[in-house]
Amino acid sequence: MSKADTSKPQAALNFAVLTISDSRTAANDTSGDYLSESVLAAGHRCVQRSISSGNLYHIRKILSDWIADDSIHVVLTNGGTGFSHKKSTAAAITPLLDSVISGFGELFRHLSWLEIGSSTLQSDAFAGAANNTLVFCMPGSTSACTTAWEKIIREQLDSTHRPCNFGTHYISKN
User: Fold this and answer.
1) pLDDT of 90-134, one tens digit each?
2) Does residue 141 come out as left (phi exceeding 0), alpha (psi in the -120 to 50 range) or beta?
3) What is the per-residue pLDDT across 10-55, written as a single tens digit (0 to 9) for each?
4) Hey, which of 69, 105, 111, 115 would disulfide with 126, CB 3.0 to 4.6 Å?
5) How far is CA 88 from CA 28, 29, 152, 174, in A?
6) Could you tell me which residues come within 8 angstroms of residue 144 by beta carbon, excluding any fewer than 6 positions away?
7) How deeply is 133 buried, as exposed, middle or buried, from its count of CB atoms within 10 A (0-12, 13-18, 19+)?
8) What does the angle CA 13 – CA 18 – CA 20 come to, to the nearest 5 degrees?
């Protein structure tokens, strides 16, 4: 469905990937692995990667450091967006955002509804921008990360995608 204009320059962006989970480790972080590998396959760079428990302040510290780093263009988080007592991603990250990209959560839930039905109601997937850094927060399942990446994020960070994309904003900053 991509409407790429190959006469436009392709931006190679710098990404950071954060998995938010009390149970994931470097050995079993399939969603973080998927996102990192997908970033590379799309011609971008994964320059930082971390796993954090759901501790609100630990999440904020990692994100604040990445947002303050001018070399990081995009942060992808997975986990902590579902309906549970341990849900902390939105509470940790939304105060750091300068603006919200409302359409991301709306579109993610629509696409997810087509795949899993009404259970998508429990997802608080969201996105925004802070200090010229895009932040996409999605559920922790690899399937949800696949939906978000393949059906929304990859195309929107492709600077050749038309009629518009987020990647174009970073071409002169590479």
Assistant:
1) 899 999 999 999 999 999 989 988 877 676 666 789 999 999 999
2) beta
3) 889 999 999 999 888 889 999 999 999 999 999 999 999 999 988 9
4) 105
5) 21, 19, 23, 32
6) 31, 78, 112, 123, 125, 138
7) buried
8) 160
